[in-house]
Write a structure and sequence with these properties.
Layout: E1 21-26, H1 33-42, H2 65-76, H3 94-105, E2 112-116, H4 124-130, E3 135-140, H5 143-154, H6 158-179, E4 183-185, H7 190-203, H8 231-243
Parallel strand pairs: 1-2, 1-3, 3-4
């Protein structure tokens, strides 16, 4: 179900594509970030070293493994992990900034590059400091679909999955309110997703590959379930839908 766009809190002004673009794909695990990143790559976004296959996603999660390792290390140094996220922004150390600069340097000379790692949403302030012109493209998914996917992947209990969904998507909405970037809903049908995605690609100066889409049915095993949700999850999901394209 789609909701009417909030004219005041969620209005966004599309920007013309600059000569050099750096993109962070932002969203919760199991929420369509692989679909979105693969589609951006197919349209010309350079990902560098990325995962092209894993047991839970036959097309690969499209994550730069060095950036994932960096995220895990920064979180672990403070007692956190992807499934035990911090509730406050993390202040990076000088050594962490230096390591991230080395990761960024691997893309020197590349006009349009980007990366996807859901953990990076938990560390976004450091990336913003190093990449002041960083642009974002976001995606979200209904909490019951995410919970089903997390349960199938690793047996995560629904209550834990819901808590994670809330933690990540609160950050997603907060970041959106700062930057008003393109935000998609993975619960929409394939045709609607691609129609909206093509507009986003044009805004980033990328070329749509309409004849060969990255999307395939195995990327969307689980659908939302009709069940009563905690009010905080319902409210956040509806607000994300109002902000989505």
């Amino acid at each position: 179900m789609r909701f009417v766009r909030s004219l005041f809190s969620c209005a966004e002004q599309p920007l013309p594509p600059p000569d050099r673009v750096t993109v962070m794909v932002v969203g919760m695990h199991r929420s369509g970030t692989s679909f979105l990143t693969g589609s951006l790559q197919q349209a010309g976004l350079e990902l560098g070293k990325f995962s092209a296959w894993n047991p839970h996603n036959l097309k690969g999660n499209r994550e730069n493994l060095d950036i994932v390792a960096f995220s895990d290390k920064v979180l672990a140094a403070r007692g956190y992990a992807w499934d035990t996220p911090p509730d406050q922004p993390i202040v990076w150390s000088e050594a962490e900034y230096a390591e991230a600069r080395e990761l960024i340097a691997e893309y020197n000379g590349v006009p349009r590059w980007g990366f996807k790692d859901p953990r990076a949403l938990l560390l976004v302030e450091g990336w913003q400091h190093l990449l002041p012109d960083l642009r974002y493209v976001g995606i979200f998914r209904h909490p019951t679909a995410v919970a089903q996917s997390l349960a199938a992947r690793g047996g995560m209990p629904q209550d834990q999955a819901f808590a994670l969904w809330l933690a990540y998507n609160k950050r997603l909405l907060s970041l959106y309110r700062q930057s008003r970037f393109p935000l998609l809903c993975f619960d929409e049908d394939e045709a609607a997703l691609h129609r909206k995605l093509d507009v986003v690609l044009g805004e980033l100066g990328l070329t749509s590959a309409a004849e060969e889409r990255f999307f395939s049915p195995e990327l969307k095993h689980h659908q939302q379930v009709r069940q009563s949700l905690p009010s905080e999850l319902q409210k956040l999901y509806r607000e994300l839908c109002r902000c989505a394209r």
